[in-house]
Design brief:
mainly alpha; Helix Hairpins; 6 helices; about 75% helix
């Protein structure tokens, strides 16, 4: 798990560093220049592609599309001012709770 977190943290650092690059030269910068709309739409698109590959049962394509989804999600975090440690802390807090318990503990909003 440590290696996985390290890879995601390293990817986030790369995304953060590219935020100030020229959008003509950097795909990441081009996404961030059109935030939040474009990165959010890309997350949705990649999530659908993950869904398709999950249903198709092709694990190699599922892994590839999952990598794309994680990348685009990290771009959305950068655009929204979310740090990976914020998300890791929430996940750590939820560890040991059943999914039903965790959902029931959330504040209801109308």
């Amino acid at each position: 798990m440590t290696q996985s977190l390290h890879i995601l943290d390293a990817l986030f650092a790369t995304i953060k560093a590219k935020a100030s690059d020229d959008p003509k030269d950097s795909y990441t910068a081009s996404l961030l220049a059109k935030a939040p709309e474009l990165p959010a739409r890309k997350v949705s698109e990649e999530a659908v592609e993950v869904l398709i590959e999950a249903l198709n049962g092709d694990s190699a394509k599922l892994a590839s599309e999952s990598a794309d989804l994680l990348y685009h999600l990290l771009v959305v975090w950068q655009a929204g001012g979310v740090q990976p440690d914020d998300v890791w802390a929430i996940l750590a807090k939820r560890q040991g709770l059943s999914g039903h318990e965790e959902k029931a503990s959330r504040t209801k909003t109308s």
